[in-house]
Amino acid sequence: MLPLCKFSGFLCLIFCLIFSSSVSAESTTQQELNPVVVTATRTAQTADETLASVTVITRDDIERSQSQDLFEVLRTQAGVDIARTGNAGGDISLFLRGSNSNHTLTLIDGVRVSSAATGKFSLTALDLSQVERIEIVRGPRSSLYGSDAIGGVIQIFTRQSTGFRIRAEGGSFGTKKLDFGLGGGDKIKYSLNASLKDIDGYSATNENNIFSFNPDKDSFKAKNISFSLKSPITSKLDIDFTSWYNDNEAEFDAGAPPDDSVSDNTNKTANLKLNYATNNVWSQSYSIGYASDETRTDSTFFSSNIYSERKIFDWQNDIVISTHLVTAGINYYEDQVDNFDVGADTLVYDEKIDNSAIYANWQTAFGKNDFQLGLRNDDHSDFGSETTGQVAWGRQIGKVKVRASYGTAFKAPTVNELFHPGFFGSFAGNPDLLPETSESFEIGANHAFSKTQRFDVSIYDTSIEDLIAFEGTNSQAINIGEASIRGLELSYTFNNNIWVIQGNLTLQDATNEDTNSPLLRRADQKLAVNVSHSIKKTGNIAAELILSSDRPDFGTQLPGYGILNMSANYPISKSLMLQGRIENLFDKEYETVSGYNTAQRSAFIALQYKN
């Protein structure tokens, strides 16, 4: 385990360097450190106004880091643990604040994109070139969004291109990428983005994987396209349409040679939103959303075709009266899942579930005190009704904003957990399952030292009950588990348009209360620091450090690790940018999942044209 003193000492050193440089930085051009967030309350707020722990990852942040994928971007964020089974096409599990990988609600442009079959969204599906910004809201949000938001919500907004750009990249592991974007318009604004990716890869598994080790290279190919259109219809009514399509093919190891297993995954999302402002007091939005996820697996040992489809309707009302803002509405979604066993040429199941909900959220301010109260009732077609709530308080004390909150949340059983017939009489679903439920307490504060510096701290305590596990008769799915998660998050940001320094420290204790053992694949301690210095006005050179303590996995304890990544953007001309990134500079060998490889030292170089 990496000792806590190493984390604390290194963090103190970084902070001292930041403070020593901030004196002269005050006279330089200031950049906004208080971004607008919409995910935390379903309404636009600045980060300071929001009574939650939030992080906004902008397009500028992505460009500075030159990260290869969402795995690399999200692993540096406070409260986020990520594990991946192998290379670029490997399955990614994201643990937000120590909760399970299906306890985080993922939205793309407002559309719920987690698979109705598994409860997870495949983060490998969405290419970073399609991303405009990412909002992370930590802590329960079921009172606003319903199921899944136990650990929090991650909302990804697809890219809004202006003008024309094209980018070509190549590098280690036979990496080849090409993406372009086109956008513009005055009253009618449009954006089109597309990307192609082809990676020869490396072996997903190693000798520690006794069941499926295969030393061959596992390739990954992906196609992404997104489109958006925004237009006013009348002075009070406008339309907003967004869509995204992905098709990727990933090789994986399912057994010893000559196994050549391949998974082909296709995702589609679309959202049509009408925004209507009756007056300055009342505004409404009507959203019709669609998401589908199809995974076709071809393997020596098993072949299947799983298709899930989701249809969504949401009607939201925002009413402003003096210092009070009430957000209320109704939400409905319907999931259809087909699971076909290709090898046996049989339909495993064909099931449909639906969920309807009504929600309300009240925000107000009295003097220096802010209050928020939310309530939602969900009616699920299989397990019945579930009511969740949230109450939060905040107060401005000088430059410090303190806050406290309490919230409940739930996770509905997936279609697999409800209806899957199992394998040879074992691991079957259970239609009598109850939802997993949680309650969380949190206190926190943020301090704006100046226009260039911000510090955030959060302390939380979450308990989760009725965790679903395949531990019943013949390993059938049952509600049995309990977990407790306690944690501390520290974040610091300094930005004066010359230096951008972001650091965060996560300390957590995630415990399975049934066995009094730590939850798998979560590190108790993690530190991430990003330092960037601008060059030639529009360019930069950056370093990214990630330190993680050891973590438990099935039958083993994975050792801690530290890796350093470097990146640069060098402007050749006003329109042409040379970009590069080196990952794992010191070639550290480590695992985030036992038996699965991570990338060795690797380098990537790209050329981007933008007008």
CATH homologous group name = TonB-dependent receptor, beta-barrel domain
CATH topology: Maltoporin, Chain A
Broad CATH class = Mainly Beta
For the record, the CATH architecture stands as Beta Barrel
Q: Which structural class should the secondary elements be placed in?
A: mainly beta
Termini separation (Å)?
49 Å
Q: How much helicity do the residues have?
A: under 10%
| Low-confidence segments | 1-31
- Using only C-alpha atoms, the radius of gyration works out to 24 Å
Count of helix runs: 5
Domains (count): 1
Range of strand content: over 45%
Estimate the global geometry from the Cα principal axes. globular
- Report the major sheet: 22 strands, antiparallel, barrel
Mean pLDDT: 91
Number of strands: 34
SSE topology sketch:
Layout: H1 4-25, E1 36-37, E2 45-46, E3 53-57, H2 59-65, H3 70-74, E4 80-84, E5 92-96, E6 104-108, E7 111-112, E8 131-138, H4 142-145, E9 152-158, E10 163-171, E11 175-184, E12 189-199, E13 220-232, E14 237-252, E15 261-277, E16 282-298, E17 304-321, E18 324-341, E19 346-366, E20 369-380, E21 384-397, E22 400-411, H5 415-419, E23 436-450, E24 453-470, E25 477-495, E26 499-512, E27 517-518, E28 525-535, E29 539-548, E30 551-553, E31 556-558, E32 561-571, E33 576-583, E34 602-610
Parallel strand pairs: 6-9
Antiparallel strand pairs: 1-2, 3-8, 4-5, 6-7, 8-9, 10-11, 10-34, 11-12, 12-13, 13-14, 14-15, 15-16, 16-17, 17-18, 18-19, 19-20, 20-21, 21-22, 22-23, 23-24, 24-25, 25-26, 26-27, 26-28, 28-29, 29-32, 30-31, 32-33, 33-34
